[in-house]
Specification:
This protein has 368 residues and is α/β, with parallel strands linked by helices. Helices cover 26% and strands 24% of the residues. The strands form three sheets. It has a six-stranded mixed β-sheet. Strands 1-4-5-6 form a four-stranded mixed β-sheet, with no helix packed on it. Strand 2 and strand 3 form a beta hairpin. Helix 4 packs across helix 5, helix 5 packs across helix 7 and helix 5 crosses helix 10. The relative contact order is 0.15.
Amino acid sequence: MDYNKRCSFGRVLSVGWENEDGVLRLEYDDDMDGVEVAVATAEQIEIGDLVVEESASKLKDLVPYNGVVNVEGLNRPLLAVQFTKLKDGLAMGCAFNHTIPDETSMWHFMTSWAQICSGAQTISVPPFLDRTKVHNTRIKLNLPLPPETSSPAPPLRVKVFKFSESAIDLIKATANLNPNPKPFTTFQSLSTHVWQAVTRARNLEPGDTTVFYVFANCRHRVDPPMPMNYFGNVIQPVVTRTSVGLLLKNTAEFGAGMIRKVIEMHDAKAIEAWNIEWESKVLGWKDAEENCVVVGSSPQFKVCDVDFGWGKPEVVRSGSNNRFDGTVYMHQGKGGGKSVDLDISLEANAMENLEKDEVFLMGMGRMA
């Protein structure tokens, strides 16, 4: 990888502590580089190399600051962008410090940036930035850098499974076989489909516990509610657990019902309770729990529609940070409509089993 240029620009935000209170804050600071832009060349890589199902190893070189954690934002850029000229195209890799945006804000930013680059005089939905009119929780923090681990993590495989619109319709219909006045959503149905499949692939015992995490958008859940265009990080993990035996012997309706229930229960009171214990949760977070499935995105974000003026992207993928055994990113499929790309990280043996699972693949599941 040849780097032609690397620079920082602008009067930008930096991270600091609010006096003796130990409260994390952002401030303007001319002396710190909040945004970094790099231009690189990788003419040995083609677009075709990046749209295949297993391209994670090549993506690493196209996204800056791999392996950097959020707390390092105290002395590193809060946003880094790398433009890489490929043999037959351009790759745009972005690294956001997650203390600033959640995925709703990140894609709001990317969409707005693309609109400006395409000639728009104003963006369609301005961000809401007034912190005085939104829910505010002050939490004292004392966050050290994460300890270095002595034992290496088990090798992971990362693979993208492409589910067509017809496959998504079938998955949703399977979860809604029984008449229900409130049908399960596409997200709930697909999440259950993945949770059951990954649990089968791990060859766990019926009495083992399996855990499902989803990161809920809390803008409309807090009291008073925040505007949906509020720019910041307003997500919390929502967790449900059950035994492997119960999850696998029941239909998809069982898992989807659990997921829907725990999401619906995550109201303002639950959010406040989570905030009270937030510091211990941050310090104790160790790649979630054993036997977990963690969904960190949603196909509701129209990522393939973000056009900077040179055409819609051929593929959108997540970087290598925040990956461990059981992470799942759901992205809008390039085919549009209801098609979904499932970006899954699993230990090698489990991934091999998942690739052979015809119930998961549903015959047509890997059609673009």
